[in-house]
């Protein structure tokens, strides 16, 4: 077990990466602009990626809202119906060795009609991009890829700019970085308080459908950094089924609401009524996180750093090292060996 000062000594590079993660956004945007995408009139983008790579794509989808047609593949195959004229396919993996993403890329390449770009730090995807002359966007080196989502966001914004499907992002990105620079210390203190409220309970994150990628972001970082069970859901769907599951309690949950000023009034009402009902009937504690920011991108980055910090400090509470992913590594080894 890693405790106290030893924990901070071992994990301080990760904490530093979190505290400076907002600078990744501008760096990523420059990378995304530096290499030209294939020519074409694009109407649709398909992202293939797993884990943190899929999160970056999901956050981009939330950011552009309904203005751009985006699909995200977290599997070995892409449904042929998605690969229509006017589609750009983006293969995204930090390591460049994610087998599901590689398989999906190979499938799309066989069609010989869909423009492809590759985003990775290296690995097999870089070699495929080189062999097939696909535009390649190299993600910056980082000791903690989980803390590099900002770079991925920036790169994808740069690529999306080139499709012509979104306007120039330079001023929005600059404002987001400045917002984070001025607020990061306060956000870290907020996250410490949030982590305290999650101790010794199973954190369950709920948000509106338009923010469900941000709820999933929290869930993933709780799993990976704090090494705890965590789940997420979205309104209004949760009111039609999931909330009934709290009738018979077999765990100790804490429900965290992610609230945004962009939530429509009816969603806010649903959140209020469910909180009142589950507090009265099931004695479940609730925490409300009012997402800060003057733009949708600022709100996304706020939730990103809150997920980073709160999961890091929850790991500290449990005395676990947030860096290794032992079960994932062991699983991959066994899968590779066929055992």
In short:
This protein has 339 residues and is an alpha/beta fold.
Strand content: 5-15%
Radius of gyration: 20 Å
The outline comes out as globular
Category from helices, strands and their pairing = alpha/beta
Portion of residues in helices?
40-55%
Number of helices: 11
Strand order of the largest sheet: 2-1-3-4-5
The third-level CATH topology of the largest domain is Rossmann fold
Distance between the termini: 29 Å
Number of strands: 9
Determine the CATH superfamily of the largest domain. Answer: Glucose-6-phosphate isomerase like protein, domain 1
Weakly predicted, low-confidence segments? 1-6
**Can you tell me the CATH architecture of the largest domain?**
3-Layer(aba) Sandwich
Structural description of this entry:
By secondary structure, the protein is of the alpha/beta class. It has 2 domains: about 5-170, Glucose-6-phosphate isomerase like protein, domain 1 (Rossmann fold, 3-Layer(aba) Sandwich), CATH 3.40.50.10490; about 185-320, Rossmann fold (3-Layer(aba) Sandwich), CATH 3.40.50.10490. The chain has helices at about 5-20, 25-35, 50-65, 100-110, 125-130, 150-165, 170-200, 210-225, 265-280, 295-320, 325-335, and strands spanning about 45-50, 70-75, 85-95, 115-120, 135-140, 200-210, 230-235, 255-260, 285-290. A 5-stranded parallel β-sheet has the order 2-1-3-4-5, sandwiched between helices. A 4-stranded parallel β-sheet has the order 7-6-8-9, with helices on both faces. The longest helix has 29 residues, at about 170-200. It is globular, with a radius of gyration of 20 Å. The chain starts with a helix and ends with a helix. Mean pLDDT is about 95; it is low at about 1-5.
